[in-house]
Design brief:
Two copies of one chain form a homodimer. By secondary structure, chain A is α/β, with parallel strands linked by helices. Chain A has two domains: 161 residues, MoaB/Mog-like domain (Molybdenum Cofactor Biosythetic Enzyme, Chain A, 3-Layer(aba) Sandwich); 65 residues, Alpha-Beta Plaits (2-Layer Sandwich), CATH 3.30.70. In chain A, 40% of the residues lie in helices and 26% in strands. The interface between A and B is large, with 71 and 72 residues. Strand 2 of chain A pairs antiparallel with strand 2 of chain B, so a sheet runs across the interface.
Amino acid sequence: MPNPTAAMLVIGDEILSGRTRDANMHFLAQEFTKHGVDLQEVRVVSDDRPAIVSALNALRAAFDVVVTSGGIGPTHDDITADCVAEAFGAHIDVREDARALLAAHYERQGADFNAARQRMARIPDGAVLIDNPVSIAPGFSMENVHVMAGVPSVFQAMVASLLPRITGGAPLLSQSLRIYRGEGEIAEPLGALAQRHPELSFGSYPFQRDGVYGANVVVRGHDGAQVDCAMAELATLFPE
Amino acid sequence: MPNPTAAMLVIGDEILSGRTRDANMHFLAQEFTKHGVDLQEVRVVSDDRPAIVSALNALRAAFDVVVTSGGIGPTHDDITADCVAEAFGAHIDVREDARALLAAHYERQGADFNAARQRMARIPDGAVLIDNPVSIAPGFSMENVHVMAGVPSVFQAMVASLLPRITGGAPLLSQSLRIYRGEGEIAEPLGALAQRHPELSFGSYPFQRDGVYGANVVVRGHDGAQVDCAMAELATLFPE
C-alpha cells in the first residue's frame, strides 16, 4: 500500500514579510519522513480569511493528511479556527472540554480567564482535540485537517500528540554520497542510474565552498536493500 | 497605487523530505518587503512535472510577480525550465546566447561543455535571461514568472539581478514592541487598536523562554507616520 500523502499550510504574515524564518515546515518534513507519510506540498499564506479557506479546501481535497500551523492564539489576528469551520461549513463556538482545560490552567496560574483567552476554546463542531502539553490551548483535528500552533515548541509538542493517530507507511530511507566533481560531469551517469532504478528517487545537490566544489547525491526509497544496491553502483561509478 | 503582489514557488524533493531547510523563501520575503512587493503566497512542491506546471499556472494567473527557486541545474531531476515551457505552451531548446555564456565559462575552466551542461542553456522561447554572476548558468523571466536557482548563493545573486526590473511600491515598514504580558491580556486592547487603524496590520507573536514570557507586537504599514502614531498608542496602552 502506498504511503499516505500530506500537505502543510503555514499561516502567518510574519513569514511572508520576512520577519520570522519558518521552522515548522522543516520539522514536520523530517517527522513525516520518519513516520512514512509523504509530504508533497507546502503552502504559506497570510492572515487573510479567503486565502486560508481557499487553500484549506484545495489541500484537504487533494491530500490524505493536511497539517496547519499558526493562527490559533487569543489575538485578533488568530483566525485559523474560524477559517477551518468555514471551509467545512461547520458551526464553531467555545466548546466545554476545551474551555475547562483552559479555565483550570489559568486558575492554577492565578490569571484572568478573560474573553480573549476563551477564544482559544473555539472549536468547530465535530473536531477532536490535539493535546498541548506546553501551553494547554489545544489544537484540533477536523476530518483529515490537523490544526496546530505556530510557536515552534508548541507545534512540535502537538505533532508528537498527533503522530500516533496517523497511520504511516514505510519510512522514506535515504543515503548520500559526497562527490567532488562538478554536477555537469556527474549528470549523465547519474541520470542513467536513475533510469535503471525507477522505484528510487535520486537527487543531486551541488555545493561550493572555499574553492572546493561537488555535489551530494541522495538516493531515497522505501526499500533499504534497493537503496543499498543503488549506493553500491553509485560508488562504483564515482570512486573516491 | 497598491504594491505589486507576488508569489514564490520552491521546487525540490529535498525540502519536502526534510533533508534541506529552505533558506530562499526567507531571503526573498525580506528583499520583497524592502522593495515594496507584497509576497502573499509561497508554495513548495516536489520535482514532479504535473505538480510544478499546475502550481505555475495557478500562481502566474493570481499574482503580479512569480519567483521560482530550484531545478535548473544539469542533472535529470532539474526539470523546471521544461515545466515553465509547458505551462506557457512555449517551445524550448538550447538557446544560442545562453549556450555561448556557458561555453565560454567551461572553456575558461578547462572543463568539458558536455550534453548535461548544455541542458542548462535550454530556455523557453520569448524568455529574458537573468544574470548569474556566481556560476554563470542563467535564470530567465517568462512574462511575469522569474526562474532562479535553488543554491542560496546563486538564488541571492539572481534576485539582485532581477530586482531592478521589478517596479516596487512603498516598502512595508514595521516597528515592534516587546511586551512582558501574556498574549491573553494584550489581546483585547490590541484588537481595539487594530480596529482604529484599518490601514495598518498588527501581529502578535508570543515568546516564552526561561520562564519569561510575553509577546512581540508588530505594526506594519506603508506610511511611516501612521506606523509611528500606532506605536505611540501601543506604548501608552502597555507602559513598561
